[in-house]
Design goal:
The protein contains 14 helices and 20 strands. The chain is α/β, with parallel strands linked by helices.
Length: about 500
């Protein structure tokens, strides 16, 4: 989709549809130019209360001039309007226009937002709302509606700020869509080797450093969790290290990359097991955010660590009762082979100490318990550092990828004590998301650590304004927002 910036009078524009946002408390002055363009139709709609400015309500008028349609969209109450509401409005109107077979439309930039923010959220919302995954369809493609051009109408005085907002939004939304593509592809395509090759391609495109450890390497360096989980699969494990050298301060991002999770010997129920192709979402997020950071030229040394495996039952599969040794020498007793994500993350988190990072942040579709706790609205957050947790909370509020902090208290360690090993990989059902986080904490050397359990937010089964059905790419926008304001004090 082509994005165009138009800085002249809207009346000079040729467009299939001109989108205008209006508040519930609209004034006659707000309608002036649009009433002229529509030859009084806008005034009639408002006077007859067919359009009231109610949030996300849409009215479309057919016109006869260069502007073929005028689309009014409600912004709700002026005092409640913000960037997140702007995203929702634009996303909704973009889908509405696409579904009405409109291939090109224009939007008058919201003046009550800072120009950068208004441009950024507009482009981001359109790109994410119109995302469509049809890589494997062979029929009906000619019937799919597609928006080919989106034009932003803005004041020329703010050109530089708006242009920067458009550029950043395109880079970040492209990365989110890339992550969604990886998530939505089936596990017979996205294997550990496939993710490793994607990391190499990202490295080549952006001149990054990439090392991929194969099974022999993983065994030699002692990553027992990765070796154990992958034993039942015909696909060998890969440990991906992707580095962006943009500055001196090092931040490690770790992503769970289970390309399919059957549960192993502790096999899952068959209902919705197809969704377990999404269990590599954390790894995909790390690939996407590292590339976005490189394209944005953020001033940090970012290290992406992705342990990627497939968890299947088989003659060689690891079993309940097995004991394994991790990269840092600690041992785990296997209670449940479906608690595999924490085993591979344990190795990767322990490995992160080699980079002496300022902070470590991991993304993982780790527990169904987190979904029970928070549903599909908030990502579960666990942290050893209050300031970093607060910064992520603020980043979540600004991006709409909200996080909710859960306890990481030492009392929960009792739940994962083993009689025969240092730890057991699964505690009781109660507090399952917390005990999983407590397990991971045992392998983190860095004092500033955050674990983000994205099990409820990584994919959706219902279409939402910014997230069509399937992978959401959650985490990319959150992490980039955090990095852009890394030096800002949270308080």
């Amino acid at each position: 989709m082509k994005v165009v910036l138009f800085t002249k009078d809207p009346g000079e524009l040729n467009t299939e549809a001109l989108v205008v946002g209006l508040y519930e408390e609209m004034h006659k002055d707000d309608l002036g130019v649009y009433n002229v363009i529509s030859e009084g139709l806008v005034g009639d709609l408002v006077n007859d209360k067919e359009f009231t400015g109610k949030f996300c309500k849409i009215s479309m008028l057919r016109l006869k001039g260069k502007i073929k349609r005028l689309v009014l969209v409600g912004l709700g109450k002026e005092k409640e309007f913000n960037v997140n509401k702007a995203r929702q409005v634009i996303a909704k109107v973009a889908v509405y226009l696409r579904d009405n077979s409109i291939k090109e439309f224009s939007l008058v930039l919201f003046e009550d937002l800072r120009p950068y923010n208004a441009a950024y959220c507009s482009v981001e919302a359109v790109k994410l709302a119109l995302y469509n995954f049809n890589h494997f369809k062979t029929q009906g493609l000619e019937d799919l509606n597609k928006v080919e051009q989106f034009t932003l109408i803005a004041n020329a005085n703010n050109f530089m700020e708006i242009d920067e907002g458009i550029r950043d939004a395109l880079i970040i939304s492209d990365s989110v869509c890339y992550v969604r593509d990886l998530q939505n592809k089936p596990s017979n395509v996205v294997t550990p080797s496939y993710l490793a090759n994607e990391a190499k391609r990202i490295a080549r495109r952006n001149k990054l450093k990439c090392i991929v450890y194969d099974k022999n390497d993983i065994e030699k360096i002692g990553m027992g969790g990765m070796i154990a989980v992958s034993k039942g699969s015909g696909h060998e494990p890969k440990f991906i290290v992707l580095e962006y050298m943009g500055g001196k301060e090092t931040i490690c991002f770790v992503g769970k990359g289970v390309t399919f999770d059957s549960g192993g010997i502790s096999i899952k129920p068959s209902a919705a097991m197809d969704e377990m192709k999404f269990d590599m979402s954390g790894g995909a997020v790390v690939l996407g955010l590292i590339e976005a950071a490189a394209r944005l030229k953020l001033p940090y040394h970012l290290v992406g660590l992705i342990p990627t495996v497939e968890n299947l039952p088989g003659g060689n599969a690891y079993k309940p009762g097995d004991i394994i040794k991790h990269y840092n020498g600690k041992t785990s007793e296997i209670i449940n082979t479906d608690a595999e994500g924490r085993l591979i993350l344990a190795d990767a988190l322990a490995y992160s100490k080699n980079f002496k990072p300022k902070a470590v942040i991991d993304f993982a579709t780790l527990t169904g318990a987190c979904v029970i706790s928070l549903g599909d609205i908030f990502t579960g957050m666990f942290s050893t550092d209050d300031e970093l947790a607060q910064k992520l909370t603020i980043a979540g509020e600004k991006t709409g990828e909200e996080v909710w902090r859960l306890p990481l208290h030492d009392k929960y360690k009792e739940y994962i004590k083993s009689n025969v090993a240092d730890l057991k990989n699964c505690g009781p059902r109660d507090g399952g998301a917390i005990t999983a986080a407590m397990f991971l904490k045992e392998f983190v050397d860095c004092k500033k650590w955050v674990h983000l359990d994205i099990a409820g937010t990584a994919w959706t089964t219902k279409s939402e304004p910014l997230n069509p059905v399937g992978g959401t790419g959650v985490g990319v926008r959150l992490a980039i927002q955090l990095l852009k304001y890394w030096e800002t004090k949270s308080n």
